[in-house]
Write a structure and sequence with these properties.
Bound molecules: S-adenosylmethionine
Shape: globular
Structural class: alpha/beta
Number of helices: 10
Distance between the termini: 49 Å
Helix content: 25-40%
Number of strands: 8
Length: 260
């Protein structure tokens, strides 16, 4: 039996349920169903989020020439994890994953399947402690060279705007010029009523509390950085591969920006 409390839903496992995964417990599945009833398009939204992640990493490793990734709030491994997408483009890519959920830690070896030319590492760490993350990541990443900081569907667990901005600034402050920040964030101004009810249910018992932000609030997190086209946009519409991909429901704002 696991040595952690499975009676309380945790977001990593609820998200795994939404994605159709099996690394979740009855409390996570019950919450997964309650939230899907409030917002049925959630099933599309989480898939659109994963598709955004893959397109953003492909852009960063390809067009932007990035070779180092710091992926915080990694989640339970699924298809197209950051290192898989990056190393398909550039096998020498180095990736550090960070999450605070014990189930993600238990699956960490699936995130460590690096190419021989590159490197992968996993840190059991908390986004609220960016200095500790940076110290641990420095064992694998060279912060004198550009790094892509990936905050995919995780900033909405930091409710306070000031704390959220301070975390982003601490992380990007440690990164070299030419580094990138990628964010997706649950939206308060897309399908607003259903999303509000979905989050109300989620926050009743889930360990990590979710705070929705609107497009302006998410854009503020990129303060001081140069947004790549098309800016902060519904995640499904960020450089989509097909019209069908762009049309997917996705109540998340997403963007990629460069540190000048
Ligand atoms: C919704 S999932 C997103 C997973 C993945 N980034 C994706 O978008 O597919 C959020 C993840 O962030 C993690 N998380 C939440 N708060 C965190 C924190 N303060 N520090 C580290 N990880 C956190 C959760 O454990 C979970 O695995």
């Amino acid at each position: 039996m696991p040595d952690f409390d499975t009676s309380v839903p945790h977001i990593a496992r609820v998200y795994d349920y939404w994605l159709g995964g099996t690394d979740n417990f009855p409390a996570d599945r019950a919450m997964g169903e309650r939230t899907l009833q409030a917002y049925p398009n959630l099933a599309y939204s989480v898939r659109a989020n994963r598709a955004f992640l893959a397109r953003a990493v492909r852009y960063l490793a390809g067009e932007a020439g990035i070779r180092q990734f710091l992926d915080i709030g990694t989640g339970i491994p699924t298809a197209n994890n950051t290192h898989e997408v990056a190393q398909r483009v550039a096998p020498q890519s180095r990736i550090v994953y960070v999450d605070h959920d014990p189930v993600v830690l238990a699956h960490a070896r699936e995130l460590l399947t690096s190419t021989p030319e590159g490197a992968c590492a996993y840190l059991d760490g908390d986004l609220r402690e960016p200095s500790a993350i940076l110290a641990g990541a420095a064992e694998t990443l060279d912060f004198g060279q550009p790094v892509a900081v990936m905050l995919i569907a995780v900033m909405h667990f930091i409710g306070d705007d000031g704390e959220a901005s301070a975390i982003v600034q601490r992380l990007l402050g440690a990164c070299a010029q030419g580094s990138f920040l990628t964010i997706t964030h649950a939206a308060g101004d897309i399908d607003a009523e259903q999303m509000a009810e979905m989050v109300r249910r989620l926050n009743e018992t889930t360990a990590e509390k979710t705070t929705l932000r609107d497009r302006a609030g998410v854009t503020r997190l990129f303060g001081g950085l140069e947004l790549a086209d098309p800016g902060v946009i519904r995640a499904a519409e960020w450089r989509p591969d097909t019209d069908a991909e762009a049309a997917s429901p996705a109540a998340l704002w997403g963007g990629v920006a460069r540190k000048p």
